[in-house]
Design a protein that fits this description.
heterodimer; A: alpha+beta; Nuclear Transport Factor 2, Chain: A; 6-stranded mixed β-sheet; 5 helices; 6 strands; globular; B: alpha+beta; 3 helices; 58% strand
Chain lengths: 145, 116
């Protein structure tokens, strides 16, 4: 069901755009896409991640390293990473025509290579409206002290 | 890249007006410690002169264009003093610029400490 919702958001976003070309409608769509991204991470859904992220994605991880889309997805779907919790809150969206900035707080905890881990970061995601879809072209996470 | 350099120079001069001109009012600014600042909060910090930069070294900078959006990614080392305490930051930043009218405006800026 969740994948069906994601597909509706991604493959037919014109439905959302056509409904109202206003910022509120776009914000709702982007929050849904952020939540879909979390679900895709949780489910290790490579197909969904591939749809959400631009081929030329720029991704700055919480440790300051820079990776591309292929490496990012490989990290997420790796069986060595077993998240127990993934959640975002405090999200805000700023829309600039075909560009949108989503920021918020992201929590993830679980086991990685047999060791417990906890991530508590503030993120900034840059989404661009390409063709008929919103895709994430850049993402950065900064640990919160 | 010229705007990125203008930003650095304005910061060095503590020129709040110049910084204000290149930031969108709704800029999302995420600092090295993960704190979220509004434009007013960032400019106030510069104005209050809490941060004294002693050395800023930009190690690399790359620009990627997505239509009327430009994303600048780079790394830097900063040595400075904040509220009397010396610090050394090594980070990777990402600044997002959008072409509004004839001007490029920065709409998001964030930085992450490089841990390895």
């Amino acid at each position: 069901m969740r994948r069906m919702i994601l597909c509706t958001l991604l493959v037919a976003p014109h439905i959302f755009v056509a409904q109202a070309d206003n910022a509120d409608s776009i914000k709702t769509t982007l929050i849904a896409l952020e939540n879909a991204w979390n679900q895709a991470e949780w489910q290790k859904d490579r197909t969904a991640l591939d749809m959400l992220l631009a081929p030329d994605l720029i991704y700055i991880k919480h440790d300051g390293s820079l990776v591309g889309k292929t490496t990012y997805i490989s990290n997420v779907v790796s069986p060595a990473v077993r998240p127990a919790k993934i959640a975002s809150d405090s999200m805000s969206v700023h829309v600039y025509d075909t560009l949108a900035i989503v920021s918020g707080i992201y929590h993830e905890s679980g086991m990685k290579n047999g060791k417990a881990y906890v991530l508590h970061v503030r993120f900034t995601d840059t989404w661009v409206h390409r063709g008929q879809s919103w895709v994430c072209v850049a993402s950065q996470s900064t640990p919160m002290e | 890249m010229a705007l990125e350099n203008a930003w650095d120079q304005a910061l060095g001069r503590e020129d709040v007006n110049a910084l204000s001109a290149i930031f969108d009012n709704g800029i999302v600014y995420i600092d090295y410690d993960g704190s979220l600042l509004t434009k007013a909060e960032y400019l106030l910090r510069v104005k209050q002169n809490d941060i004294h930069l002693q050395q800023v070294v930009t190690e690399e900078m790359d620009v990627q264009l997505f239509g009327t959006t430009a994303i600048v990614v780079g790394t830097y080392r900063i040595r400075g003093v904040e509220k009397g305490k010396p610090y050394l930051h090594h980070g990777r930043y990402m600044n997002t610029w959008v072409l509004i009218g004839k001007n490029w405006i920065c709409v998001a800026a964030s930085t992450t400490p490089i841990l390895r």
